[in-house]
Amino acid sequence: MTISRSHSRARDGPAAAETQMSKPETTPLPWLQLSIIYWLQLSEPMTGYVLYPIINQMVLEYGLTGGDAEEIGYYAGVIMSAFYVTETLFIFFWGRLSDRIGRRPVVLIGILGSGVTMVMFGLTRSFAGLLLSRGLSGAVNGNIGVLKSMIAEITDETNQARAWSLAPVVFASGATLAPIIGGGLAHPAERFPSLFANWQIFKAHPYFLPCFVAALFPLSAFLLACIHLKETLPSRLNVRSSNPAVDQTRPSATTPLLAKPKPPPIRSILTTRVQIAVLNYGTISLLSISYSFIQPLFLSSPVGKGGLGLPPPTIGYILGACGLWNGFFQGLFFPALHRRLGTKRLFMISVCAYIPLFLLWPVMTLVSVRSGFVTAVVKILLILQLSLYPLSRCSHIFITSAAPTRGSLGATTGLGQTVASFMRVVGPALSASLFAVSLQKHLLGGYLVYVILTMLVLGTFGGATLLPTVMTRASDEAEE
Predict the structure, then answer these.
(1) For residue 4, which of 122, 145, 106, 156 has the smallest C-alpha distance?
(2) What are 138-185's pLDDT values in tens digits?
(3) Which of 114, 162, 277, 349 has fewest C-beta within 10 Å?
């Protein structure tokens, strides 16, 4: 194999200078292909977050609860969770399939399905229809893991941190814009009568417009990908990297003649390295979703009942600011931190950051209870807490570098994403239940939930010590 050892066996972080005569030059990123991939990734938050401002009102107005307002949360929760349940069941299949037929066709199927099911959601008024459309959306949404495989395949050790750092910026942009579309375009016939009053479809389906606008993102991404997205799976490429078309996909002058490996058996994928990477990805995903779910509960719960008692608009501003700060931090600081600290050290620091993230909640509660309202001290603590959240990254690099062979990269990322999706299903229920039980039973003064989450952080830190310090692309090694 002609790939330079200094690239494929580059040490992670500061230790690199001790083991190499000179650092390898940073490979330029293939911006055209990355831009298309980022646009494809934008579709997920756009089609998901657009529903958050409107789903409860949809359930109420469509009479799905039979007039029982207390059941709104239950029905809305079931509808929204259908996406994650089916995604968990099917995402490994899509990753495995992409190892066989290529990344591009799987991405095209998924992104088209995402747009079509979003339109379906806006045009149905029944519980079964809403549930079916969200379930189908999750079932065809194999793009999450496959797009991560594509990023891994068009980058190397010298530029992967930069490529990964921009993905949260894309997600944060979608997570910020989508709720504005969802809340701002609902009931267009009533809110914008001069434009939509004569359109019967917007009267019969008052939430179709935001769903349709959100669907334009995956549908436009589908058209863009059909025209410009290049295949990245090595076994589907039969020419050397001197070909301009391949240069856009893997811009390296040392790329070898690409072979056609067959996808290995599933059992062979479950190496110790993959298991450790997936375990850490799963636990950090559980920490992340638990934090994201408890945060609005904490902000909205009354002072004296475990929270700060903030009004919905303020909570919305805080959550939006958190998303923007997360994306801003990732885009500007993550690559530099990754170069300076290395993947493992940065990941372990990010895990430790969850300890103050969780423990600042009871501190803010105690201050608020004693004062009876949200003080300047609480606001400072809240800003400190939000500033720590963006550190929780690096998992994707471990997952993609752990793939045993090139032909198993899709299955490996699919396995990691399956575990992460499962955590997105069970995490909210577990964290919300712990939060409620801790307050209702006054366990450890109502703070048991934070003690358990802190113990989970310590367990995750222990698992992180098993991660490799030297980052090599096993998929490259296996085929030398």
Answers:
(1) 156
(2) 998 878 888 888 988 888 878 877 887 788 788 878 888 888 888 888
(3) 349
